[in-house]
């Protein structure tokens, strides 16, 4: 199983939002996309998840174009967290997580087990009976992440997880915990694509970084090669110093 | 017993009580004992009063069935539309079905006899035209709300507002054109009433049950779509097809209800809201519970409409609006308070 974008582009009328996107998401790999506002990160995720189809090139899983995939089948192997999720109905937290099981027919008992496991993993077990609409931003985000993970929890091998800024509302501890968990999922064989704003967090966890700028991939590779002073100057128009993380051999950007 | 099961038990008991109340209330005295006697007589046990039998079978029973079906239909479509629009304050009227039906009904009452000749005297002619009007305006809203990329609920909402305004203006034109008798019947139709229920109209109303059942089967997809269009898609739900199905079921359900009973306000809005407050938001529960509570409330409103100005009757639309209006204000105030807390 491999999720592939081959020279994919996306345009609305004359406005070209993405061009020449080529990327492989392999099982066991954590790819993190970074870039300035409006670079096309969220649009790229929509292309990769099959929410929109490329106007040029192709996006495919195992060589089969996403257009050909049955939605239900795709939902069983791919879980996607869009940037902002709104839910205006007073669902309880455990109910929201259980909605991740909609594409499956594994039975109520198994679904409940998965939900309980994820409530604990995402540190929202104490909120299980709370009304989702009354939660804080970070609590809502953890609940949505739990829902996404419930979708692929049974067979992580060969699944794809796409997350658009999953940590934007999380505190430092929950950011770290969430990314560690995502890392575990890649170790279990999932292919993961995450959009992050925090470059240092991205550098710390990514197997591969993808730097986007004006609708194209500027740089793609290991964190040291992507987060160079030249690249950051070019994309953000900002002079920064880059040092090595004192404990992990990862770049650390000081603006 | 779980909270959900308890709630359903209470709802079913309330429904039975409301049915009983509805059957015994009216200008002629008819007690529960007499009703059971009449039921037994119907099955061939014992004798009973001919007159009371006629009142029960020809007046009270069809009326009770009509109230149950219309109430269940309005409430279930309300719950589905709220889910589809992702807005707990949405109402089936948003897709234009009620106002389109009202326009067609007004047109039929005022100019129908002149244009249609003998056909206008068919007793189902008015409901038939009202139903067509409701479908036509919903189709227009659906068309206006869709473009190459699919349908947008916010565009549909705006289109619905415009179509509603135009249809109401159209009803106004027919008010202006009508003579006194016509004006009275248009007005009464618009205020909503199930007083004229017969077995043939109650039979048609029973078709609403099909819509209710179809919508109950959409519970899973509705649970997905309240998370968002793309979220639902990523859960394997074909969002475009779901939107079309829900709008069509709603147009059918509300179209039948409005065509037979006129415009009955606030049931579609308030009932699902009450259910969510009491039992939660999971559509597997919300849909059937809304059907039950809608039936109960409309039976109660109909019984009330027979009692308050007895022996005359108040149009049921006035009763539901008088009770529903203040409740709606309460919901708005409550929502405002909650938003205030978040800021």
The CATH superfamily of chain B is identified as: ABC transporter involved in vitamin B12 uptake, BtuC
> Main sheet of chain A: which strands, in order across?
6-7-8-3-9-10
CATH superfamily of chain A: P-loop containing nucleotide triphosphate hydrolases
- With strands numbered from the N-terminus, the spatial order across the biggest sheet of chain B is 1-2
CATH secondary-structure class of chain B: Mainly Alpha
**Residues in helix, % of chain A:** 25-40%
Number of DSSP-assigned strands of chain A: 12
Largest interface: A-B, 29 and 24 residues
List segments of chain A where confidence is low: pLDDT < 50 over at least 5 consecutive residues. Answer: none
Q: Overview of this structure, please?
A:
The complex is a heterodimer of chains A (255) and B (343). Chain A is built from nine helices and twelve strands. Chain A is an alpha/beta fold and 255 residues long. Chain A has one domain (3-254): P-loop containing nucleotide triphosphate hydrolases (Rossmann fold, 3-Layer(aba) Sandwich). In chain A, a hairpin with a 2-residue loop joins strand 1 (3-12) and strand 2. In chain A, helix 4 (108-121) crosses helix 5. The radius of gyration of chain A is 18 Å and the shape is globular. Chain B has 15 helices and two strands. In chain B, strand 1 and strand 2 form a beta hairpin. In chain B, helix 4 (97-116) packs parallel to helix 6, helix 10 packs across helix 14 and helix 13 crosses helix 14 (283-307). The radius of gyration of chain B is 21 Å and the shape is globular.
SSE layout and pairing:
The complex is a heterodimer of chains A (255) and B (343).
Chain A: E1 3-12, E2 15-25, E3 30-34, H1 41-49, E4 56-61, E5 64-65, H2 71-77, E6 78-81, H3 93-98, H4 108-121, H5 137-152, E7 160-164, H6 172-187, E8 191-195, H7 199-205, E9 208-213, E10 216-221, H8 223-226, H9 229-236, E11 241-244, E12 251-254
Parallel strand pairs in A: 3-8, 3-9, 6-7, 7-8
Antiparallel strand pairs in A: 1-2, 1-4, 4-5, 9-10, 11-12
Helix pairs in contact in A: 4-5
Chain B: H1 3-24, H2 32-42, H3 50-84, H4 97-116, H5 125-144, E1 146-147, E2 150-151, H6 153-177, H7 180-191, H8 199-205, H9 208-216, H10 219-225, H11 229-234, H12 239-261, H13 267-279, H14 283-307, H15 316-342
Antiparallel strand pairs in B: 1-2
């Amino acid at each position: 199983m491999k999720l592939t974008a081959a020279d994919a582009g996306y345009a609305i009328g004359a406005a070209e939002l993405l061009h020449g996107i080529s990327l492989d998401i392999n099982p066991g790999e954590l790819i993190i996309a970074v870039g300035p506002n409006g670079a096309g990160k969220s649009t790229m995720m929509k292309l990769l998840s099959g929410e929109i189809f490329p106007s040029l090139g192709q996006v495919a899983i195992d060589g089969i174009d996403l257009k050909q995939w049955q939605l239900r089948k795709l939902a069983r192997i791919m879980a996607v967290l869009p940037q902002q999720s709104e839910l205006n109905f007073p669902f309880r937290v455990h109910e929201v997580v259980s909605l991740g099981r909609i594409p499956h027919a594994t039975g109520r008992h198994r679904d409940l087990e998965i939900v309980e496991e994820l409530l604990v993993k995402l540190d929202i077990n104490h909120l299980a009976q709370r009304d989702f609409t009354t939660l804080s931003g970070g609590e809502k985000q953890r609940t949505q992440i739990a829902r996404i993970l419930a979708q692929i929890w049974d067979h992580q091998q060969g699944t794809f997880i796409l997350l658009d800024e999953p940590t934007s509302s999380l505190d430092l501890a929950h950011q770290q915990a969430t990314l560690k968990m995502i890392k575990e999922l890649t170790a279990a064989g999932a292919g993961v694509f995450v959009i992050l704003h925090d470059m240092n967090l991205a550098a710390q966890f990514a197997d591969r970084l993808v730097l986007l700028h004006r609708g194209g991939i500027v740089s793609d590779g290991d964190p040291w090669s992507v987060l160079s002073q030249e690249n950051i100057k070019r994309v953000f128009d900002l002079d920064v110093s880059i040092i090595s993380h004192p404990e992990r051999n990862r770049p650390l950007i000081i603006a | 017993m779980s909270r959900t099961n308890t709630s359903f038990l209470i709802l079913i008991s309330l429904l039975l009580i409301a049915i009983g109340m509805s059957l015994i209330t009216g200008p002629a005295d008819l007690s529960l004992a007499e009703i059971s006697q009449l039921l037994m007589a119907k099955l061939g046990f014992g004798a009973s009063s001919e007159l009371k039998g006629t009142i029960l079978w020809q007046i009270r029973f069809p009326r009770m069935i009509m109230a149950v079906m219309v109430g269940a239909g309005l409430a279930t479509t309300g719950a589905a539309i709220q889910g589809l629009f992702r807005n707990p304050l949405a109402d089936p009227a948003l897709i234009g079905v009620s106002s389109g039906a009202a326009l067609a009904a007004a047109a039929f009452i005022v100019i129908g006899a002149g244009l249609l000749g003998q056909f206008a005297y068919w007793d189902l002619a008015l409901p038939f035209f009202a139903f067509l009007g409701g479908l036509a305006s919903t189709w227009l809203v659906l068309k206006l709300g869709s473009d190459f990329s699919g349908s947008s609920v916010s565009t549909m909402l705006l289109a619905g507002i415009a179509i509603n305004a135009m249809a109401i203006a159209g009803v106004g034109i027919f008010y202006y054109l009508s003579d006194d008798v016509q004006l009275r019947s248009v007005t009464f139709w618009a205020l909503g009433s199930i007083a004229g229920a017969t077995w043939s109209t109650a039979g048609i109303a029973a078709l609403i049950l099909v819509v209710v059942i179809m919508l109950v089967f959409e519970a899973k997809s509705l649970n997905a779509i309240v998370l968002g269009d793309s979220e639902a898609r990523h859960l394997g739900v074909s969002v475009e097809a779901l939107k079309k199905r829900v709008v069509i079921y709603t147009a059918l359900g509300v179209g039948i209800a409005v065509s037979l009973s006129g415009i009955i306000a606030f049931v579609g809005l308030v009932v699902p809201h009450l259910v969510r407050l009491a039992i939660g938001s999971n559509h597997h529960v919300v849909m059937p519970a809304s059907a039950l509570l809608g039936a109960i409330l409309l039976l109660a409103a109909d019984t009330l409409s027979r009692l308050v100005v007895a022996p005359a009757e108040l149009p049921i639309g006035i009763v539901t609006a008088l009770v529903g209006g203040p409740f709606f204000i309460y919901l708005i105030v409550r929502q405002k308070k909650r938003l205030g807390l978040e800021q």
